[in-house]
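Good morning C.,

I know you're traveling, so I'll keep this short. The sequence:
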Amino acid sequence: MAETAETAEAAEYADHPAYPVGLRLSGRRVVVIGGGQVAQRRLPALVAAGADVTLVSPSATPSVEAMVEAGELRWERRRYEEGDLAGAWYALITASDPVACARASAEAERERVWCVRSDDAAAATAWTPATGRSEGVTVAVLTGQDPRRSAAVRDAIVEGLREGTIAAPHHRARTPFVALVGGGPGDPDLITVRGRRLLAEADVVIADRLGPRDLLDELPPHVEVIDAAKIPYGRFMAQEAINNALIEHAKAGRSVVRLKGGDPFVFGRGMEEAQALAAEGIACTVVPGISSSISVPGAAGIPVTHRGVAHEFTVVSGHVAPEDPRSLVDWAALARLTGTLVILMGVDKIGAIAAALIAHGKDPATPVALVQEGTMAAQRRVDATLATVGERVVAEGVRPPAVIVVGEVVAEGPTKPPVEDPEAPRG
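The tokens, ready to paste straight into the viewer:
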């Protein structure tokens, strides 16, 4: 059986594997031949490395053109010409013309420029590994000519580093930190990668009831987990007790994560905690989270904006009733808006809220949806109108946490019931 180029290449790699090295390209000339999809994938990493990139190609994808317009690289709008690689340290050949690729590759060989070829890896002098990064660590994987396996191995390693399942101890002493981490709407898969990594590095986690609770079971045994709802308050208000706990553990030199539901700065009182830490001279990192105001409606099939239906959405807290003098919400103004209204923490006040919106001119037939336990296994959706929502909440036993969506978008989405065509023939 005749040996194919692929099998010959694989055999060569087995006998002489590639020598891995990290190129320091900052300020050094790099030439990319071809402006198609391959270049589009490779260029951002070259720019991030600080390379002085010149693109030689008669055309380019819109994304590559945007990089040129942003001043991230220079573009010679023409085909490859002899001498284009002069002074280059590294070349990436991605052109669709095989003759141009061969000529550019031959120039790279003569000029001793390391050269990657997307059309013929066997003729290249360098290969691009499957690369990933996690908090200062670069993972590069080569498996000969099996790019899918390279990518799979890379992904497994990077995910392990990010989630803390692969131990990568620092040889230098780790600097303690305080982080306000948004855990997202509840599903543990919806926390950010950075938030999950900081959790894995924490000594103390002060967690909210609405945070992704399942992640707490994954923490090592030495991590102290504090339920924010059960901190002994004594003479302090609940929030003040949480602030004091953050300060106490931070001053003791521990790495502290304040794990909050949704986003720390969307009705999460995160700024109060950041200010309390700053008053004690303690810096903190804020890790944004996926807000339930958008993610929970989306999980229930409700778009908060939709072309031709809603060009805006407004998020308000419903924990204070409209007639309460402490309310900071202008319900009259909200009633005049034509977009979507998303109400958080308003289950027990929704009857009064609906009445206020109707009193200020909102159509009583406006659709309303309540999404309880959004993104979690117990998620359920209850639909109503402004006129009926107060009764529906009681009749259906809707309990917090629930996100309330008011507006015509409730009738949109893939979960809406099919509309029967009155003109359709009946059998």
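Safe travels,
E.
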